[in-house]
Amino acid sequence: MTTVATPADTTIAAPAPILEARGLTAGYGDLAAVRGLDMVVHPGEIVALLGPNGAGKTTTLLTLAGSLKPLAGEVRHNGKVATAPLYRRVRSGMGFIPEERSIISKLSVKENLGLGRGPVSEALRLFPQLQPLLRRPAGLLSGGEQQMLTLARCLASRPSLMLVDELSLGLAPIVVAALLRALREAATETGAAVLLVEQQVQRALSVADRWYLLQHGALAGSGAADENSVAELAAAYL
Ligand SMILES: Nc1ncnc2c1ncn2[C@@H]1O[C@H](COP(=O)(O)OP(=O)(O)OP(=O)(O)O)[C@@H](O)[C@H]1O
Question: Which family would the database say this protein is a member of (predicted)?
Answer without folding.
Answer: Belongs to the ABC transporter superfamily.
